[in-house]
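Lab meeting minutes (informal)
Scribe: AK
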Amino acid sequence: MAGRPLWDPSEIKAPTLIVVGEWDAGTPIAGAQAVFGKLTNTHYKRLVQIGEGTHLVFLEKNRMHLFREVQLFLDEPRSAN
């Protein structure tokens, strides 16, 4: 398994929200965009970048932006495909 990914984003079928902080060194936006592009089997996906946030954005000053984005994602109506 050396060099092979542990999981394949194309296997995800559930609605998927990816949130990344602007200053997240652990998960840079390019990495989030790469995963987002590989989510080929979900019918609903969204990528959100939170400004001035790190990997711990849920504890930081812009955490309410994160909470709103999660709630919007959960509340958004979508068809059952």
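Next up, CB showed the second protein from the same session:
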Amino acid sequence: MRAALAVLGAMFLLVVGTLWWLKFEPHAPQVSLLSPVSALGRKTPIDFDVRSDAPGLRAVSVRLQAGGTGYDLLSETYPSTSWRGSGVAEKRLHVEADLLALRVPEGAATLEVYVDTYGWHWRSVAHVPRLTVPVTVHMLPPKIELLTTQHYVRVGGMDVAVFRQSANTVRSGIEVDRYFFPARTGYFSDPAIALVLFAVPQDLSADVRPRLVASDAAGNRREVYLPCKITPRRFAERTLVVDDGFISRVVPDIAQAGRLALSGDGLKDYLFINGELRQRNEARIREVTAQSAAVPLWDGAFRRQSNAAPLSSFADRRTYTYQGGVVDRQTHLGYDLASLKLSAVEAAQNGVVVYADDLGIYGNAVILDHGLGMFTLYGHLSSIAVQPGEQVKTGQTIGQTGQTGLAGGDHLHFSVILSGVHVDPVEWWDSHWLHDRVTAKLTMFPRAVVTSGAEQNEQTRP
């Protein structure tokens, strides 16, 4: 009898021990925010990760304590898939509740995250918040007042807007469809006045409606549509014949310069360079032009390459044919200017070198920062005469023309770029356009610091 009881006791202890081993969760569930949260607006997004040891999560809830009341922002449950639990050990959750609809009062509040699991614990975890974050609820968006009342833009061209924004603004600018052009503060003596250079990119229609936007730290956002007249435009169409001779000349050089692993099929590799590599190069240009001097470094209209004739114009729509058939279509973002072979390439205006290296389809290239988001690019160079960080003057030689990259012959590819977006250089070659559309608006209000072009160059670069 005693032996039987002993066996039963041992079996009981074995079963209990096994259950304890399978169900006991030695560590409390963990909650971590993906990014810090200190202020909540009407619909501020909050993302966080929840982790728990096996046997998995049972429920997660997010609550906001404000004004003595709890407001439920999210609640999820995870049904068990076996006797052991749900098996859900990790979960990434996104919260974007409408605090205005929930009637949450503004002011100090506390964000709480509760987690329940299928595991056994020494103490209950379901009723104790696993994450507590003090926050401030603020749902009034920033104020913005447009100070420039009329804007005239051609598709592919640009303009300037000046506006006043409230002190709680942390991000502002102009959205044109999917493009964003950031505003700049500190240029005028009144810190509340901001300016933004914006464009209607060449791949958009004249029907787009640019809008001035401003948001605060809590994500509250205000929009104001610009009074803007956009002139439609039809760009030139060109057909370029690609042959085996051209492919065999340009593809190996570009592959070697960019350390590209290509297939060995000449046409296939050319199409990769003309398409995929072109996109990569534009992404690199956006990276390089993401930061700009806080003041204009230019002094007057931009200079066009001396004694150079245009081979193509801005935003040409190019169709590429091979052995009589269409193989590709691309848009040419800039001007091709040809003079004598190995001609000196001149800086279009005062600026700072931000790039001087191989750039894929552009070959050897130089990019200059002219301030306020304005840049110029010089491509297909045979040689480069400047270094990144170097300050250059208008007309200074920065290299020599060539046929590196996707160039059919010796010439200069010249682009004007605003905040990563190619715009029509013709406008910046025109002193009257520059005065009416840009300079007049930059002188609407007193400047914060009035310096010469050279002093500006010194003060706005490390």
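CB comment: Residues 18-23, 452-462 have pLDDT under 50 and may be disordered.
No objections, moving on.
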